[in-house]
Amino acid sequence: MAETLYKRFADAIAVVESYSYEQRESKEIALAFLVLRYACINVDVVEVGSKFGFNIASSSLVSQREEDFFSDFMSLVRAVDSIFFIQDNGVSDVFEAFVEKNRRAKEVIVSIKKIYEILFFETVDGKYLAGIFESVLLELYNSKGGGGPEFYTPRNLVDFAVELVNPENNEKIYDPVCGTGGFLVRANDYLHQRNSNVCAEFIGRDKSLFSVKISFWNLYIHGVDNFSVYTGDSLSWAQYEPRKYDVVLANPPFSVKDWNWNLFASSGMDFYGAPPRANADYAFLLHVIFSLSDIGRAAVIVPSGVLFRGGAEKEIRRNIVNDGLIEMVVSLPAGLIKGTSVSLCMIFFNKRARSESVFFARAPEKLSKDQFASPAFELSNILDICREKRAVKGCSESVSISDIERKEFDLSVSRYVVSGVAEVRGVAEVAEEYIKLEAELRGLQDELKYYLDRVLD
Fold it and tell me: How many whole angstroms separate alpha carbon 352 and alpha carbon 247?
């Protein structure tokens, strides 16, 4: 039944796509429908109709003419919004805007009615709906113009980060650039696997209204109990009441040039040094560290240039390393995240157990075809190595801060972990490396131009 339901639902959504200006619009309709159905698992639809003054019995609703159906359907949707969702995070606006955009075309309402019939005439559980929701998110991420690295983090990376940060019950868990809320959802799943009574608090923030809404829906449909999602720029900390969190998980947008440096500088987050105005990578890292409680741990995905770039970034990196905050650096292959060909890494911070050494590990260079769908892929090969901080030739090594200082605080994994197998690089790999270095050079040129302009002024 489950596979048949999913196929019928997907086929019905495909019809809606023909009326959409962009794929994101139809996927939003699909996500809204799943959230609506999940909400109605927890309420008596007929009772809701009676309470809000309309007849919403499923059988009579589907037998109505399209115009009458849509009127009663929207009554149900608004009622669900008023019960479960705060303003801006409900589902009613999505349906109203889509139908209005198509001028209440009969074919559009027929399509919505068909999807309603598919979902509401089947007995489904919440976990199954959450699974379909995740599949739609992945389709949206992989679609043209669907989303970038700040919108959706491949779930294999999410799983890897959560496993190593090891959230605990009763902790506050935070994502300052939450996108679809994947880190927070997985942290909740991780805790549920270990304790049926999860008492943690989950907090997300994102600049995008669309992302905040999708993240809210994602947390809701996955049964997360205690969560909040806010709209806002995490780098503009002065706008918010400073809070401390026990776990921070983040995949910030890479190398942002247009950001409010002045507001960041006045926020107190630049205590390890002022990041360059032309690149916000270190601003995000400083925000993560600033947000950690005294027992806080964090995992952050960043471009590998963060590990070795000079200037102001090198000074910040030196201060952070000397303070014993960096627990581990894991290199990741290029191409892991859609929309960027640069090589990546994951940096782990730990205030609970500061160390005089840093553990370096390198993930396998080659990826399988199912890199986005597989929950573990090749990272499973190094998960236990990283968890145990075990030195393995050609894969991992623990390095003292004094040794890192001798290498001028360059945290590139390749400086400390040398592969035991000589690699012959092909044209594609050399070209990819060239593109990466060229992008880093452009960033440095922009930064230099900024400082030269200030001198000339």
Answer: 11
- Within-domain flag for 420: no
Which pair of tokens denotes residue 319? Answer: 């201060």
Three-class secondary structure of residue 437 per DSSP? helix
pLDDT class of 20 with cuts at 50, 70, 90: confident
Question: Considering only CA atoms, which of 413, 257, 415, 435 is closest in space to residue 335?
Answer: 435
Hey, what long-range contacts does 52-61 have (CB within 8 A, 24 or more apart)?
52/78, 52/79, 58/120, 58/121, 61/116
Q: Which of 375, 422, 14, 340 is nearest to 163 (CA)?
A: 375
pLDDT at 240 over 90: no
The two structure tokens encoding residue 411? 């945290």
The tally of CA atoms less than 13 A away on the side-chain side of residue 348 is 26
Nearest Cα residue to 236 out of 216, 251, 258, 219 = 258
Tell me the CA end-to-end span of the chain in Å, nearest whole number: 70
* DSSP string of 207-244, one letter each residue: S-HHHHHHHHHHHHHTT--SEEEEES-TT-GGGS----
CA distance 404 to 175: 29
Containing domain of residue 111, as a range? 2-142
Residue 208's domain is classified under what CATH number? Answer: 3.40.50.150
Tracing tokens 């995240």 back to the chain, one arrives at: 337
The DSSP call for residue 201 is E
Contacts of 245 (CB under 8 A, 6+ apart): 171, 172, 173, 174, 203, 291, 292, 293, 296
pTM of the predicted model as reported, rounded to 2 decimal places? 0.86
Distance CA 73, CA 67 (A): 10
